[in-house]
Amino acid sequence: MSTANNPDVAKLIEKLASNDACQRAEAAEMLCHACQACPNGETPSAASLATLPLVRACGDCDERVREWAIAALEDFGPPPIDAIQHLVQLVTDSKPLIAYWAVTLVGRSGQSAASAVAALAACIDSSADLSVRQRAAWALGQIGPAAFSARPVLLQAAGQSDSRLALLASEALEAIGS
Amino acid sequence: MAHKKKETNASSSFFWTALTTIATLIGGAGATGWVMPDLPWLGPRISALASTLGLDGPQAQAVETTKPDANSWIPSTAAPGIHAPSAPTASIAYAPSAAAAQPSRLQPAPASTPASAPAAGPFAAPGPVPPTTPPQAKPSDAVLVASFNIQVFGESKMAKPQVVDVLARVVRTFDIVAIQEVRAKSDAIIPDFIRAINADGSRYQHVIGPRLGRTASKEQYTFIYDTNRIELDTASVGTMRDPADRLHRPPMYARFRVRTAPPERGFSFWMVDTHTDPDEVSQEVDALADVFVVMRSARPDEDDVILLGDFNASPMQFGRIKKIPSIGWAISGVPTNTRRTKTYDNLIFDPIATREYTGRWGVVDLQNTFGLSIDKALEVSDHNPVWAAFSPWELPASQGALMQPAAIPMPVPLR
Q1: Cα three-residue angle B112-B219-B161, rounded to 5 degrees
Q2: Do both A99 and A15 map to the same domain?
Q3: Which residue in A37, A118, A49, A38 sits closest to A80, CA to CA?
Q4: Do residue A172 and residue A103 come from a single domain?
Q5: A4: distance to nearest CA of chain B, Å?
Q6: Considering the domain boundaries, does residue B111 fall inside one?
Q7: Per-residue model confidence as pLDDT tens digits over B27-65
Q8: Residues of A in contact with B284 (CB under 8 A)
Q9: Is residue A90's pLDDT more than 50?
Q10: Does residue A92 sit in the same domain as residue A58?
């Protein structure tokens, strides 16, 4: 994911790492605008470049940075394929918002994210954050049959007391098939 | 079908309905698309002429009414898992409006004291319209209802005066705006915004819901309304209870009434503000079908429900909503995002029950309307405001197809 062809985005990504919260917030907002989905549904190049920095920005200490990063990610389509392996490393991040958005983007990749199944299953099993566990169940459902190895974890989740987690796990099991 | 507090003089009602229809048709009914609300010029002139001739229309009539009961929620069994609250305001966080400094009978009551509503009913006692003249002339023959997703409406946005100016001008165009995406830890954002709106002498107020969302990132809904023309039923405000957790941000509802008409004749209606999760659109849209059904039966004296907001779905993706008998929606075939690629925002209602719908709707193109570059328009929001116009007079629900306002061009697909 080279930024060489998109120097403006490269500068914004650099600014996103600034020590100045105002600078980071401005960068996150401008990246949000730059990353709006293309009319034809393709992922804009800016979004491809900014995926990982924006997911990490969801854990920023400044509220403005977090909210603009989240707003940007909400509008993303599936992330670029080569970002998935990096996103997988973030699904277990200790900051719940980083983990949540990494899981969400992995889920949007659908069957292309088969390599993330073990990490997502681990999320359901061990994440301390309920929203991350729920979203991981959803993501496995998006991956579909390729997530077959996650069935035991999903079966367990389907029996959990949290009704939403149980529902999403059941739906994932249905999508995965037997 | 719920029956409303309407005992009308039939001939007068027919006269006014016919007059409104003619005025609307000539004055621009059905005008759609990329426009500011193009207010029909003929309606006000006919009203003025009627007034000159001593034909004061429905305003002149004394009408017996049934007082709405502030606590008349009816638990519905039609939609398992989603309920209107059994006690109003149970989960709402009221915030005092910036306009609270001005004397008004329409202050949002604290959640713990819903009984503080005027004894005559949940709406404020009838009174004259405040003397303040609205800075922008609004149509006398219509109430303009809008929805606006103001992307990440928080400190960053409020720190940009040019953005606040555009947002304030948008709000002043309408009688009520349902806003989505208030995202701020501070409670001062909306009161500050109300001050900006009212800086020109307007008298807008707001009612805001609690922070909602499954993660640490929360959003609030708010309704901002022109107190010169609209009043809030302070006992009928709340957030949908969603025990099955089907909706990321359960809708906020509030009941309003037009106050430019006598209280017993003014159009009253529920507004239900929603913003779906883009990753679970189909499930949430189906849940919203249940929300609509629940709200429609929430009060026996209220049959008008306007479900509006950012659905992250075009009408083609409305799922079970489309299966609600006679359901319709205002926005169709026109993009509602700032980049003009998606139709995500809408106003959904039953045009048979809500005959007050005039057939006029639109999308305010921020770029064209305010002469902004795409980058500057995106600083305001990634969504354009969407709106629909309704009669200020309460009309009885149609009893059948013959009662439908078929003469009015309606972009709402009737099913």
Answers
A1: 105
A2: no
A3: A49
A4: yes
A5: 23
A6: no
A7: 333 333 333 333 333 333 433 343 344 333 322 222 222
A8: none
A9: yes
A10: no
